[in-house]
Automatic annotation (TrEMBL):
Converts 2C-methyl-D-erythritol 2,4-cyclodiphosphate (ME-2,4cPP) into 1-hydroxy-2-methyl-2-(E)-butenyl 4-diphosphate. This is 4-hydroxy-3-methylbut-2-en-1-yl diphosphate synthase (flavodoxin). InterPro entries: Dihydropteroate_synth-like_sf, IspG_bac, IspG_bac-typ, IspG_C, IspG_TIM, NO2/SO3_Rdtase_4Fe4S_sf. The lineage of its organism: Bacteria, Pseudomonadati, Pseudomonadota, Gammaproteobacteria, Lysobacterales. Residues 1-10 have a biased composition (Polar residues). Its cofactor is [4Fe-4S] cluster. Residues 1-22 are annotated as: Disordered. It comes from Frateuria flava. The gene is ispG. Gene3D superfamilies: Dihydropteroate synthase-like, Sulfite Reductase Hemoprotein, domain 1.
Length: 419
């Protein structure tokens, strides 16, 4: 019988990243060992340069490192250079990706300024063209990418599979002694669509270091299965995303469940959380969720995150919940300024705890923590800085005082960023 106490403990953390060919998208490197990149997509009418530039700026300032826009009409293609001009006037420098379906070959040909301004083209092999025109229209887009030195994401999608590929695979499957089930055939069609299209792009002359692949589905288990398979069959950089993830908690949960498994296995070079916004809700929510997913997994650091207890019968007051929300909101609002001024501030850890049970302990583990009084506890809130009790706050201004302590700590602790 072996002595389990002598076994080597497992190392916590994600697996080694899957090796991939690096692809430069504007100023951003995707794959090749670079940190996992956060991207998002606008939902404005691209024909409206003002609203589209405004939303791109909002997404970029929230932390989106690449922003994709729909380019679906001649007017939208003509608007792209004007969008770029507006962003330059706003001081926003973020790579813009053009999302093309059906008529991308025509738009890139008719609007060379659009083809030049975009940092990357995204095409779907399932609808880049149909019948005899498919190959020529695909080649036309790839040739434009070669002409202008742009990378291309070849993004196959469950909802728009190449039906010719599906029919071929179904015929092949029928000849097998033990045919695959329909789901396996569909996954194979998705993967083959992406891989065959990438091979064709290379034959045309697009370098391997300008190709990113994605194979999107809307089911968690299907996405995991598709990308596990795809990852073993190529070394292209991979874009991860659960397509049509949904709204609110459902979309967040489903996306996190799928992407966390793949990221934990070292698969994925760039991600998007495809959330359906609440009516009137901010598009930046998908950026925040993507950042928090990567940060809570220990893959990136974007902004200080607040550890806070969920509350229980010891904490019937909502004050600690309000304070946690205030602190997290304050940090996110200050990060654009802090990111410019201070090095490493994104690694700051904070704790807002509601009672004496875990409050002091969690607060000591954070750079700055506060343990608020629970029911029946003395009306005082000890503040811990770098593991040591620094002061005790009392009265009606605890929130303002704690935020002030936080700002002072950041100014003292983190070196001013050098130019």
């Amino acid at each position: 019988m072996s002595d389990s106490s002598s076994q080597q403990p497992r190392t916590a953390g994600p697996a080694t990243r899957r090796p991939s060919v690096g692809v430069r998208v504007g100023k951003i490197m995707v794959g090749g060992g670079a940190p996992v990149v956060v991207q998002s997509m606008t939902n404005t009418d691209t024909e409206d340069p003002a609203s589209t530039a405004k939303q791109i700026a909002e997404l970029a300032r929230a932390g989106s490192e690449v922003v994709r826009i729909t380019v679906n009409t001649p007017a939208a293609a003509a608007a792209v250079p004007r969008i770029a001009e507006r962003l330059a006037m706003m001081g926003v420098d973020v790579p813009i990706v053009g999302d093309f379906h059906y008529n991308g070959h025509q738009l890139l040909e008719a609007e060379p300024a659009c083809a030049e301004v975009l940092a990357k083209y995204r095409i779907n092999p399932g609808n880049v063209g149909f019948g005899k025109k498919k190959d020529s229209q695909f080649a036309s887009i790839i040739e434009k990418a070669i002409q202008y030195g742009k990378p291309v994401r070849i993004g196959a999608n469950w909802g728009s599979l190449d039906q010719g590929m599906v029919a071929t695979l179904m015929d092949e499957n029928a000849q097998r002694p033990q045919p695959w089930d329909a789901g396996v055939v569909a996954r194979e069609a998705l993967i083959r669509s992406a891989l065959d299209s990438a091979a064709r792009a290379e034959q045309i002359g697009l370098p391997r270091d300008r190709i990113i692949l994605s194979c999107k589905v809307s089911g968690v288990q299907e996405l995991i299965a598709v990308y596990r398979d795809l990852a073993t069959r190529c070394d292209y950089a991979l874009h991860l995303g659960l397509t049509e993830a949904g709204m609110g908690s459902k979309g967040i949960t489903a996306s996190a469940a799928a992407l966390a498994v793949l990221l934990q296995e070292g698969i994925g070079d760039t991600i998007r959380i495809s959330l359906t916004p609440e009516p009137g809700g901010s598009r930046t929510q998908e950026v925040i969720v993507a950042q928090e997913l990567l940060q809570t997994m220990g893959l990136r650091a974007f902004t200080p995150l607040v550890t806070a207890c969920p509350g229980c019968g010891r904490t019937t007051s909502e004050f600690f919940q309000e304070l946690a929300k205030t602190v997290q909101g304050h940090v996110r609002a200050k990060m654009p300024e802090w990111r410019v001024m201070y090095d490493g501030v994104e690694n700051l850890t904070l704790a807002v705890m509601g009672c004496v049970v875990n409050g002091p302990g969690e607060s000591k583990h954070a750079n700055i923590g506060i343990s608020l009084p629970g029911n029946g506890e003395a009306p005082s809130a000890p503040v811990f800085i770098d593991g040591e009790k620094a002061m005790t706050l009392r009265g009606d201004r605890i929130a303002e005082e704690f935020v002030g302590i936080l700002d002072d700590y950041v100014a003292r602790k983190y070196a001013t960023r050098t130019a």
